[in-house]
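task queued by scheduler; priority normal; single chain, no ligands, no partner chains; default sampling; output format set to structure tokens
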Amino acid sequence: MKEQTKVRFSPEISDRLFFLEFLKAISITSVVSYHAIFVPRSTFIINNGILETLFAPFRFCVPVFLTISFLLFERQIAQSSIQSKLPLLKKRLIRLVIPTLFWFTVATGLKIINGNSHTEIINAILKGEIFTGAYYLLIVLQLMPIFILIRNWLNQPKNIFVTITIQGLVFLSTYATICGFFGNQILAFLVEMERPLIIYWFVYIALGIYIYKNFSWIENKSRSLSKTNKILIICCTAAIMAIEYKILTSLLDTLRPFDYAAFSCILSVPAMFICFASIKENDLPSPAVKITKLLSKYSLGIFCINGILAQIFLSIGTKIFSQANFSLSQIIAIKIIGWIILLTISLLLSMLLKRMGLKRVVC
């Protein structure tokens, strides 16, 4: 396909594009779903594999978030008159460092109050587990400089597909490692490095750049697809993700740190963009538009706050329900209720922090 150098973004009421706001809103909602069980894993261990498979399609969230991040960074660079990219990178990194330091400090303070040792806290920071989901901030901070270094190389469409191929080979090697082909030492190393290890994530730089440069085509294609075809694409993608995660859960006791080392995660990005790139505000009821914009605007705050609250609620739930045994239907109900509560509280606290003058740590 011929590369489109002039990218047409449909004008919106605000500078922020509604389809991106929509993708961010459904992505942050999906993120919260993975943090919403406030009882120990031992209480539903028999049904854990089924639960992971049922909610596997929601793992599009982190890949879509990363792709949007690099799409917007590419847009910022393309629209800037500044020749050097370093000032833009510095500005972007500062924007990321401020909320990262703030929320890592808050989470560290809570760990200290809870009696965690300095070694445990340092280990949790490095592994991106100082609060649930903290690894995402570490990933973005690592990938931003890499984005600048390889951006010109990725301007060639063939190199986009080379990057996707390399990422696929990394995932294939990861599967082989999990199956024991390379011995236990490499597997132990991957487990120790946890999810911030960038070998699982660099493909989303390429996808962000590609989608930005070819957005006109993607938007037109999305507009031409019927609702039936879009539903079919989403259902097929969800089924593929569920099948792949069923395979992963059969190989591992726990998915960490290989939650997103899945081919279907890459597939989910073009699927979500092709289905929603043409969505407009007037396609949704007014209340849905307002909720979408709120969730999108405060997605950073929700992401960090829900990760901290999830650990607090889990600590409480562990003390109360340590001897319980939940059926599949019960744990799904617990997850859905916890999902609603966690999302609502995180959004409200984000709005409160903004009013207190802490906009940069929640927006």
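post-processing summary
- The mean pLDDT is 93.
- The first helix runs from residue 18 to 33.
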